Amino acid sequence: MPAKPDLAAVPVSATATAVALTGVRHEYRSGGRRILALDGIDLRLAAGESLAVVGPSGCGKSTLLRMIAGFLRPSHGEIRVGGIPVTRPGPDRGVVFQQPRLFPWLSVHGNVAYGLREAGVPRRARSERVEQLLDLVGLGDVGALRPYELSGGMQQRAAIARALAPDPAILLLDEPFAALDALTRERLQEELRAIWLRTGKTLVLVTHSVDEAALLGSRIIVLSPRPGTVVLDEQSALPRVGQARDVPEFAALRSRILQAVRTPGS
Ligand SMILES: Nc1ncnc2c1ncn2[C@@H]1O[C@H](COP(=O)(O)OP(=O)(O)OP(=O)(O)O)[C@@H](O)[C@H]1O
């Protein structure tokens, strides 16, 4: 049997990149209307934290994530990543969307390698890195397949591997498992948790699911209905390894999150 690559060898970012949002407010202007999506967001995220962002529909979760990604500039306030103001997307921030958005004309391997090729990483190093990442996300055997030959869960794993390829310090995930069936979703949640523990990445995860937030957040924030403001900001005391869902703290944390979602301003 061929030796499995040492997954611990997947490089962990050396820089202690953190995210800082100061006085962030965002207002959309659409058809003469102004929509205040987020207001008064002050947040400092330490490197290696996993921040779950929960809140009712339309409270500005995706807006927050898009601003950290650099797709959108805040109307007021400032966002810094690793101390540097965010003005555009960059290789220090990998993004995973609800839909995998894989390139259908490329193999799974080709999809994961794409950004590395664009960045001029030599073929051999590229290939080694892609193999490691495919193993990390459990797709070691299907690199040669095309996205349409994969299940939805496998496609989302490939999207996660693609986002991790440039070794971003921060992984931003916007409802990454919302389109998957319940069983696949649960499995991928466990896998993402393992990937986070293994790689030490800073994660920002937007989710509607209170369970998902409780399971995956080392820190959880709840936003109020629009304009989104932070109404709960809690560090999780759940064990990082083992079956986090089975410990009593899980149910307690879950119910505090749920209460904050239901009674904004509390
Ligand atoms: N491009 C846009 N132009 C105008 N308004 C927008 C735009 N994008 C979002 N909005 C509005 O801003 C508010 C926040 O949207 P956002 O998508 O950030 O919320 P969300 O919490 O992620 O919602 P959901 O949970 O339903 O995905 C909503 O009222 C939405 O209608």
From TrEMBL:
UniProt keywords, alphabetically: ATP-binding, Nucleotide-binding, Transport
Domain of life from the UniProt record: Bacteria
Pfam family, one: ABC_tran
InterPro entries per the UniProt record, alphabetical: AAA+_ATPase, ABC_transporter-like_ATP-bd, ABC_transporter-like_CS, ABC_transporter_ATP-bind, P-loop_NTPase
Transmembrane recorded as keyword: no
Domain called ABC transporter: residue spans: 19-250
Cross-referenced PROSITE patterns: ABC_TRANSPORTER_1, ABC_TRANSPORTER_2
Signal peptide positions on this chain: none
GO molecular function, one term: ATP hydrolysis activity
Record's protein name: Putative ABC transporter, ATP-binding protein
